[in-house]
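INFO batch 0412 | record 1 of 1 | parsing
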Amino acid sequence: MGFHGAGWFAYLKHDEKRDQPKVTRELVKRVAAFARPYGFQVLGLLLTILLISGITLISPLLYRDLIDNAIPNGDLTRLNWLALGMIGVPILNGVIGVLQRQLNSRIGEGVIYDLRRSLYAHLQRMSLRFFTQTRTGELMSRLNNDVIGAQRTISNTLVSIVSNLVSFVATLGIMLALEWRLTLLGLAILPLFIFPARRVGRVLRDLRRQSMEFNAEMNATMNETLNISGAILVKLFGREKRELDRFSSDGASVRDIGIRSAVVGHWFFMMLSVVSAVGSAVVFWIGGHLVLRGEFTIGTIVAFGAYLTQMYGPLMSLTNAQVEFAQSMVSFERVFEVLDIPIEIAEKKSARTLESVEGRIEFENLSFAYEGLGKDEKVGLDEIARFSWRGGGEALLKRGKQKSDESDSPVASTGSRFKWALQDLNFSIDPGQLVALVGPSGAGKTTTTYMIPRLYDPTEGSIRLDGHDIRDLTLNSLAENIGMVTQETYLFYETIGANLRYARPDATDEEVIAACKTANIHDFIEGLEDGYDTVVGERGYRLSGGERQRVAIARVVLKDPRILVLDEATSHLDSLSEELIQNALQEVMKGRSSLVIAHRLSTILAADKILVMKDGKLVEQGTHKALLKNSGLYKELYETQFKTA
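INFO prediction complete | emitting tokens
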């Protein structure tokens, strides 16, 4: 793909210097906060760790007593009890270990459930702007790969650190009591553990972060190309090989980073094993001399050797735990990165619920820019490593969002090059009034409709519903009273009935059927083999475009909102179906405020008011007859588009 070994080396070398995870006190406290509700289970877990560590220390003492007393003295009773003790120690350890595992799992799974739920709830509250700037695959990676990585921190790494620390301290105490000189000799090799661990820990930590990024990129590629829309696009343009090459490159990145991590980890453990073996050999060598000089019993040197192994084992694990802990904290960092993104469309604590909505809508000096936040405020996730394709098949690896210039400020009044999506809109919709939005493509019609249910918030100005700024109302108030059929109809991979009841889960069968009759879709559904239990497939693709749109219209009719927003709601319908639905919608619109993006003459003629937009500005408004007399943009659109529609 034009990006080979030297390029990867340069990228990895650069990446090693950036975004290195820092295990700060604040980060640890934040992780601990998720474990706080499980305080009693944590105490129980700590108790099992202490019990297991204490019981494990008994075995070497049994060996010493066997060698120094039972066998030399021919004490059969003592020998029998020691043998039973050697059997009982692992059994007791195993039973307590089962309890420890149960507590550990409850804590780990509980914390991860809370974390994943918090993450999903936070994403649900994100604005539409966030989802337009973040790829689905990256979100899936945070919810799956990173949360699982965080789970390892809770379930494995932290428990390992505590248990090994307790074991190390207890073993060290007994060794000092047995023979302090040999213990100090065994401890003399500690620097050989610590210094390599710090160096390798940094390398493995950075490899872990890179692995997460490459996995997220691979997930994003799969999400983009293996959904129904992506698959159709790939097939229509014959780009199967191109996408396979892209996926192969992503997979190769995951493979290569995995191999590198495995090799570095193996060298690390081999080095620690050699250091441990050297330490044991030196201790046994000097200890053997002490035994030969009569300063040590054979049983004591055997017990000491066993304790030495028990000390080096936890020591090696503790050294590795530092590495694992730093790696796992990368997962928490990436999860917290999402949780820390501010809620752009936030509900005020003092937000009020409108019990009764008349439906008067007022746009007051409203302006909107898609990049309307401050330059330093975060909206989406940082983009991960990805390839951008240029002519001739050249692939360039990029990472991170493109930095905007100072001139990219959203404030148009500063004389910057920034372009508003909507600018200085002023109009009103009275209850029961049908208002049509018309204008050329890119005029800002859809963006205008998105402002009413607060899919976006104005950058400047406001929208008022029944005299209240919609930012002062609860989001549920808006959702319950606004019904919208978007330009791109979306249906869940569910039955037709389930998709319809998404608007009103408590709707009766009679109400569902009545809504479908209004949308002229009931007869079609009844003609299907499974009727309302027919599964519509991914994104509803088992239905035609017109059928999906009529289901979407029926869903809004079933919701029975006070305000209707229709974005090209009849654009995929044939003339007969459109006429039937238009007649039905006229009944539905009575007493409701309705804003319709119109592409057909029938909608234009039925409108009480027509808003004409161009380049995000409202250039004309009025009735059909009045606008025709003005000889402005509307008349031009009418002559070229609507009159022949």
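INFO post-check: The domain at 367-373+407-642 is CATH 3.40.50.300 (Rossmann fold).
INFO record closed
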